[in-house]
Amino acid sequence: xxxxxxxxxxxxxxxxGQAGVRSERAETTAIRPDLHPECANLDLHVxxxxxxxxxxxxxxxxxxxxxxxxxSVDPNSVDPSNVDPNSGEERRQPPKPLVVxxxxxxxxxxxxxxxxxxxxxxxxxxxxxxxxxxPGAKDDFDMARAASxxxxxxxxHGVGSMHVVGLSLGGTIALRIALEQPDLVDRxxxxxxxxxxxxxxLKVQAAALKMMSRRRLAxxxxxxxxxxxxxxxxxxxxxxxxxxxxxxxxxxIASAGDRNRSDAATRLATTIPGATMELLAGGQLLNSDNPDxxxxxxxxxxxx
Length: 304
Prior knowledge:
Elements: H1 2-31, H2 56-63, E1 98-102, H3 113-119, E2 124-126, H4 143-150, H5 153-156, E3 162-167, H6 169-180, E4 185-191, H7 199-211, H8 214-219, H9 224-236, E5 249-255, H10 259-271, E6 276-280, H11 286-289, H12 291-302
Parallel strand pairs: 1-2, 1-3, 3-4, 4-5, 5-6
Helix pairs in contact: 3-12, 4-6, 7-9
GO molecular function, one term: hydrolase activity
Domain AB hydrolase-1: 97-242
Region (Disordered): 60-95
């Protein structure tokens, strides 16, 4: 009798342990999508508060999976359908296309939260800080250095090229990448991007920036020194005369209610060969002002 009870107890402990492992993995996938195998290559940690948790039925199904199926316990186990019958080795799946999301001034990588969630099933995603704009950064902003940093991302993600999405200042950096390394950019998306502000516009912006206190700018997420460096770099980095050299398929997106931005978008769309243009309701920061509208355009333009 003692032996029988011991065996029953041991079996129950093993079953509880297996269910606990599966439950913990289900919760980890829901709370930390950056640890999920499908999201392993994200350079952006998604806000867990906005990620949908699996419903109760899905969680129960996960916990009741066949304990003798190794794939129900080990998510990294080999799928037999991916094994080459001749060599016995697992077939390597080609890496997903890479999409690089470049934030605007006054934003941060997590500003692309909604776009990461919308694109994660079909793409690798990188949403890095622009060098010189990260809080506490020691480097001053420089357009050439910022673009050069991002040109290295395909190598680190195991692909030969990338799609680039840039908003405002991020779009200007994206233009420079497309001009300097045309073979590196497959598709280009420019959101509320001004290719080349006039000297008068830059002077007005510089004067307004000089009058604003550091505290007021910081409340908007803007570092005054970095903003001044951006204006100085944009005055020296003129790409407007080279727009006709861009080879990538290009989508230009602008806010419908912003006359200045829509005029700039029209110039981009009519100068870049083969470019198309779309208008969306919302303010300058469309990735947060109208995420659903922007996501729809990105999916339709970028998805193979």
